[in-house]
Automatic annotation (TrEMBL):
The lineage of its organism: Bacteria, Pseudomonadati, Pseudomonadota, Alphaproteobacteria, Rhodobacterales. GO terms for biological process: metabolite repair; nicotinamide nucleotide metabolic process. The gene is nnrE. This is Bifunctional NAD(P)H-hydrate repair enzyme. K(+) binds at N69, D129, S164. Its cofactor is K(+); Mg(2+). (6S)-NADPHX binds at residues 68-72, 133-139, 161, 261, 324, 375, 437. It comes from Loktanella fryxellensis.
């Protein structure tokens, strides 16, 4: 998905909208002739329909807040009562404080309105959380927090838009309890995919409430949830008449004595499709690498002149340094030499730490395609850690000019121009030593084949997660490269 808009139709499906962008979607829809009460009716009816599809009628406690999230709750209550549910509705605040569409739907509710208290949970087999959605602007008070805790202990919770207490823009938790199911409208928000919001949402379902996808043309989203639709068309193609050099030459800097990390990375680069993969190693490490690797070429490198000669080979299309490289001046100067080629570079692990406290050196040195793959600890040694994960990754990408892959269970991939992707396709089995080295090699292999840095990073993160999911429990990093053929086959199917 390049800036030329390639794949724009599909990428719209994966867009994540901020609370402010969602409000614009709302306004454009209203301006197009759909009144707010109709939108709210569609939202509440969709929630009731999804509930009725999954649960048989019972006693449901609908907890309504003072804004439009509460208004949705009134619609849900009405629809579930019509469907034969025993509905107990309770409201935070006085009914006469409701305004607009929420007041309209409250007036259509003919049942009793109880004040919010633990009594309303009695006997409930399901709870609908319609307290706060997009309008949450502070932590819920102690009374609301206690009620939410009691609700969680009583029955499954279905949250409307977000679990009350989760910030839609960031996924920050101001005091939410976990829902079983969260139903949101039109498109997800970052808070549905970033942690801890994603976990608190439980399963997230996006309901269509009649907002036309064409509003996205005006909103021009810059954030997406990762998936093949975003970058499948940019994956390297095989040419029937090609040869190994037309598939790119990936070079990994092989460290010593920690040789396993670079070996994992080289295998991943080769499996990702690089035509040639080489590992440059200090002479004393040559026997170790050469014994362990067969199709991967091992190049002994002694000193700066040797390195310069190696890097002057224009057939090397992408470089990686970091896994097992060691922290210090040698790694730093090798990374700078790689960056000076102007060809693609991946900086990971020790290569990042070798610039700790001096991000300006990277800002100056990065002139070509570059992907940096820090985990939170490595990130904190280099860049500002204030703000949410999307903000942090975007800020580091903007100042450095590199694509930043800020890793974790909710990996964020950010481009210098402001685009960002949040990955949700990664099982916790990836939390195993060396899996980050495989990821770095995967990015390298795709870059070596000429893929754009943002696309390559997003694709690699997704493929890494897919490989781990295919393996299941008991995964070690060594297993990952061997799973890539199945991942690639799945992508081309
Ligand atoms: N966009 C769409 O397309 C559609 C959106 N829809 C729905 O609208 C929802 C957004 O509605 P919304 O803007 O009225 O905000 P909402 O979440 O109800 O909260 C605002 C109220 O809560 C209050 N308040 C906030 N925090 C508080 C706290 N901690 N403790 C106590 N009070 C607190 C705040 O009060 P104040 O700050 O004024 O004191 C204000 O009164 C959205 O989530 C979705 O469900 C659908 O109906 C249709 C289509
Ligand atoms: N709980 C988790 N769920 C999903 N992915 C995870 C989780 N923990 C770690 N990962 C992923 O595993 C990889 C670990 O990389 P890293 O921390 O660099 O480890 P190492 O240095 O041991 O290779 C990253 O891609 C990260 O996003
Ligand atoms: K809610």
């Amino acid at each position: 998905m390049g800036p030329d808009g390639r794949g724009a139709v599909l990428t719209g499906d994966r867009a994540l909208l901020s609370v402010a962008q969602m409000a614009v979607a709302d306004r454009l829809t209203v301006a197009g002739g759909t009144p707010v009460p109709v939108l709210m009716g569609a939202a509440g009816s969709a929630v009731a329909r999804i509930i009725a599809d999954r649960w048989s009628p019972g006693r449901v406690a609908v907890l309504c807040g003072p804004g439009d999230n509460g208004g949705d709750g009134f619609v849900v209550a009405r629809r579930l009562a019509e469907a034969g549910w025993d509905v107990q509705l309770s409201l935070l605040g006085a009914p006469d404080r409701l305004t607009g569409a929420a007041a309209h739907n409250a007036a259509l509710w003919t049942g009793p309105v109880a004040p919010l208290s633990p009594a309303v949970l009695e006997g409930a087999t399901l709870i609908v959380d319609a307290l706060f959605g997009a309008g949450l602007n502070r932590a819920p008070d102690r009374r609301v927090a206690a009620l939410l805790a009691a609700a969680a202990a009583q029955a499954p919770i279905v949250a409307i838009d977000v679990p009350s207490g989760v910030m839609g823009d960031t996924g920050a938790d101001l005091g939410a309890v976990a829902a079983s199911l969260t139903i949101t409208f039109f498109r997800k928000k970052p808070g549905h995919v970033l942690l801890p919001g994603r976990t608190l949402c439980g399963e997230t379902v996006v309901a269509d409430i009649g907002i036309a996808p064409s509003v996205l043309d005006r909103i021009a989203p810059q954030t997406w949830e990762n998936g093949p639709d975003l970058w499948r068309d940019a994956l390297p193609l095989l040419h029937p008449t090609g040869h190994k050099y037309t598939r790119g030459h990936a070079l990994v800097w092989g460290g010593y004595p920690m040789t396993g990390a670079a070996r994992l990375a080289t295998r991943a680069a080769a499996r990702a499709g690089a035509g040639l993969t080489s590992v440059a190693v200090p002479p004393q490490a040559l026997p170790i690498y050469a014994t362990a690797l067969t199709s991967i070429m091992v190049r002994p490198v002694t000193g700066a002149e040797d390195l310069a000669a190696l890097l002057s080979d224009g057939r090397i299309t992408a470089h990686l340094i970091g896994p097992g490289a060691g922290v210090g001046d040698a790694t730093r100067s090798t990374a700078l030499a790689m960056l000076a080629t102007g060809r693609a570079v991946v900086l990971d692990a020790d290569a990042l730490t070798s610039f700790a406290g001096d991000p300006a050196a990277l800002d100056r040195a990065i002139t070509g395609p570059c992907v940096m793959t820090p985990h939170d600890g490595e990130f904190a040694r280099l860049w500002d850690t204030t703000g949410d994960k999307l903000h942090r990754a975007r800020a580091a990408a903007a100042r450095s000019g590199a694509v930043i892959v800020l890793k974790g269970a909710d990996t964020v991939i950010a481009a210098p121009d402001g685009r960002a992707i949040v990955n949700t396709n990664a099982p916790p089995t990836l939390a195993t030593a060396g899996s980050g080295d495989v990821l770095a090699g995967l990015v390298l292999g795709l870059l070596a084949q000429g893929m754009d840095a943002f696309d390559a990073a997003a694709a690699a993160v997704w493929m890494h997660g897919d490989a781990a999911s295919r393996f299941g429990p008991g995964l070690i990093a060594d297993d990952l490269p061997g799973l890539l053929p199945a991942v690639l086959r799945g992508l081309s199917a």
